[in-house]
What we know:
This protein has 342 residues and is α/β, with parallel strands linked by helices. The protein has a domain at 244-342: Orthogonal Bundle (Helicase, Ruva Protein, domain 3). It is built from 15 helices and 11 strands. The chain has helices spanning 3-13, 29-44, 51-62, 77-88, 104-107, 141-144, 146-153, 188-191, 205-218, 231-240, 248-263, 273-289, 297-308, 316-320, 325-335; strands spanning 66-70, 92-96, 108-113, 118-123, 130-134, 155-158, 161-164, 170-175, 194-198, 267-269, 313-314. Strand 3 and strand 4 (118-123) form a beta hairpin. The termini are far apart.
Amino acid sequence: MGRRGASARRVRAGIPQGPGADGGVEVKVASVAEIGGSLLDAVETVIVGKRPVLERVLWAVLGDGHLLIEDVPGLAKTLIAKSFAAGLGLSFRRIQFTPDLLPADITGTYVFDRKTGEFVLRRGPVFTNVLLADEINRAPPKTQSALLEAMQERQATLEGETFRLDRPFFVIATQNPIEHEGTYPLPEAQVDRFLLKIDVGYPTREQEIEILQRRRNRRSDDAPIEPVTTPDDVRSLQAVLEDVHVDPAVEGYMVDVATATRAHSQVEIGASPRGSLALLKVSRARAALAGRDFVTPDDVKAVAQPALAHRLILKPDPWIRGVRTSSVISDILAQVPVPKVP
């Protein structure tokens, strides 16, 4: 096995093997930075020059939330999802959303088995650990809503019977911001279910040259990644965030930032308490990846854009003038007093 495989063995060997409260292995806060760093290093063997983007993806994973990636085609959105699934040692399924996609194509359905004379369950792609919803805005709202129950409740209901999804379960959805013909905008209720919304961005000239060089060296389009963790490890990494301390002053700062979005003059609908919870989860994830067992105001500032911007609905006039929710969040962060934490 190659260097990455050896690295994976070293990381797994370093994870304490005592039972955790969630049924997984026990992991300490100090281990999150080491394990997370090894995972990011593994994914960076495939994704060139996008460490900050990959860190945001890992924030969503550790925060046990879903991720929406909005950017133009060809920027490795699908490859990022596949690479993280492989590095985390999780099962992966992909759904290409199209106008004729049906809810049963996502959740599954009962089909008649002629041999037994009975209806048997054929599970859909939602029964996986990492689900890539590619071009999610190309399916009609009825099909998009089929994901709502799975995203929020981690379960799927078929013919009145409820089935629990395996944990961990993440939805990584992509959408193209430049094509609007033949698309259906995501309902606000579904957008709010995503813990983070991010973009990828174009690589620099040097990074794009490296992409070509790596492709030549591999002599193949496939770029395999050795698993760094197991599903049990991922559950334990998520559970350990509960041990990351949040000072009451920092907690109040999170609420003040979320509340300020509701009072901003250019905002029609601000972030709900789900937005405050997103700040809490993602700030803890960022702190743990930095090797800290406490959250600072800088953590809150760093995660505010991807955690809150997609939850805001602007008033028509600012939107027409070119104001965007990201600039509103920046304005709020500049205005809300930052607490002094000892």
